[in-house]
Amino acid sequence: MNTLPAFATLDQNNMVINVSILDTIDDIPTTDSIGISSSFSILTYNTPDSSVINEPAIGYTLDTTLNAFIPPKPDPTYILNTITYQWEPDPSLTYDLHNDGKLYRYDLENICWIPTFGPEIVGVETT
């Protein structure tokens, strides 16, 4: 985690379009000084009063209800972990990770992929 103060520039949908690391909190620019329209906003993080979860990255979205930067969802079946606010594969589904017909399920406890054996189909719940 970066310990220097920084800011993320967000678009009108709260998506991060730029992240800048600063030398001091005094270096945080105003909207006017960086020449962006009023539909954009600036959010500081890594400051003493910041409680935002996850560091922002371009393409992440700020969820103001959760006070967290959420990365893009890598697959429609992934589930948001409500502790880390990171996307995880649904452990009840199987996935063909390598497009070779071999199916795997995600083991949340061990944080790894486990091969499955049988007639499971990607996107279908396992029993």
Rg result: 19 Å
As residue ranges, the low-confidence spans are 32-40
Tally the beta strands: 10
Largest sheet: 3 strands, antiparallel
Beta-strand content estimate: 25-35%
The largest sheet has its strands arranged as 2-1-3
**Kindly, what is the distance between the CA atoms of the first and last residues, rounded to a whole number of angstroms?**
39 Å
Spell out the helices and strands N to C.
EEEEEEEEEE
Structure class: mainly beta
Helicity, in percent? under 10%
Shape summary: elongated
* Total count of helical runs of at least 4 residues: 0
Mean pLDDT: 75
Question: How is this structure best described in words?
Answer:
The chain has no helices and ten strands. The protein has 127 residues and is mainly β. It has a three-stranded antiparallel beta sheet with strand order 2-1-3, with no helix packed on it. A three-stranded antiparallel beta sheet has the order 8-9-10, with no helix packed on it. The chain starts with 5 loop residues before the first strand and ends in a 12-residue tail after the last strand. The model is unreliable at 32-40 (pLDDT under 50).
